[in-house]
Design a protein that fits this description.
Length: about 100
């Protein structure tokens, strides 16, 4: 998968766990969950003020520059699932099954 462009932002808020800060910021961009943020942190993709931090529980303080680099795009490829239905009633507004 192709690498994403680095993401950098200055945190503004109360001291909070790094994994939560990363997940909340990046989820606004629709890129990751908190567990994915933990994996990025532990693999060395996240730095605070230029220093790599590999502990998801690190407390980020207001004014600290958080940088995320070297992350890969997440695949969101979904496959449809054919599920047979036993239809009890159907009209143009509703379908009822068991």
């Amino acid at each position: 998968m192709p690498k994403e462009q680095p993401i950098a932002f200055t945190y503004e808020g109360e001291p909070t766990r790094l994994d939560r800060v990363v997940a909340e910021h990046v989820s606004k961009l629709a890129l990751c969950s908190r567990s994915q943020a933990e994996r990025w942190i532990e693999s060395g993709c996240v730095s605070i003020g230029g220093t790599v931090v590999q502990k998801p529980a690190y407390k980020v303080s207001a004014g600290e520059l958080v940088s995320i680099a070297g992350i890969e795009e997440q695949s969101s490829h979904l496959e449809p699932y054919e599920h047979p239905l036993d239809i009890l009633f159907e009209d143009k507004h509703i379908v009822t099954g068991k």
